[in-house]
Specification:
This protein is about 40% helix and about 20% strand. It has helices at about 10-25, 55-60, 80-85, 110-125, 130-140, 150-160; strands at about 1-5, 25-30, 40-50, 50-55, 65-70, 95-100, 100, 145. The longest helix is centred in the C-terminal third of the chain and has 16 residues, at about 110-125. The structure holds flavin mononucleotide.
Length: about 160
């Protein structure tokens, strides 16, 4: 089995690198997918953008065995079942890993536009609870939720195979 990942700002890559270190598996960026044999088993790691796992489409025709997705939320939103259904991976083991985000001022292009709209929308909410206030602060100031221990369920799944 090999690791294939898609990462724009580096948070998902950190998990992919750790996984490679801990398991000795070969690791490929999705950009180097051509180097991976189609029959080779793959564990894929991507990041969530409005509920869609980025890069997943590119590995669909490969021998995909498990999928991990990073996001800024504490848990997959609105829940794991919905994320799996939306990304058509109901038949595969799925692991949500908390990622992170750069401060909004360091973001670029369309992602910056989309996140700025999202922050503006959150700020307009009348009943802002602690969770919403925390999301606004994370998006504006940046946030790093990447923790090595979050990989534990993935490592357990791998060793149980
Ligand atoms: C435009 C945009 C949309 C996002 N949508 C979601 C989302 O739906 N759910 C979530 O938990 N995180 C979302 N995020 C946060 C990213 O998934 C998170 O920052 C991820 O860890 C980034 O991974 P990377 O550094 O490997 O690119 C979004 C980020 C951007 C820029």
């Amino acid at each position: 089995m090999v690791i294939v990942y898609e990462s724009k700002t580096g948070f998902t890559k950190r998990y992919a690198d750790w996984l490679a270190q801990k398991t000795g598996m070969e690791i490929f960026s999705v950009k180097d997918l051509a180097k991976v044999d189609r029959k080779e088993e793959i564990i894929f790691l991507g990041w969530l953008k409005a509920g869609t796992i980025q890069g997943l489409k590119k590995v669909r025709d490969y021998n995909l065995k498990a999928v991990c997705a990073t996001g800024t939320a504490p848990a997959a939103e609105p829940n794991e079942q919905t994320v799996k259904a939306r990304n058509r991976i109901e038949h595969l083991p799925f692991f949500y890993l908390r990622g992170g985000c750069l401060p909004l001022r360091e973001m670029k292009g369309m992602d910056k536009v989309l996140l700025s709209c999202f922050v503006a929308m959150l700020k307009k909410r009348k009943n802002q609870d602690e969770k919403v206030r925390e999301s606004i602060a994370h998006l504006e100031n940046g946030f790093d939720g990447v923790r090595e221990e979050n990989l534990k369920p993935v490592l357990e799944w791998l060793s149980a195979r």
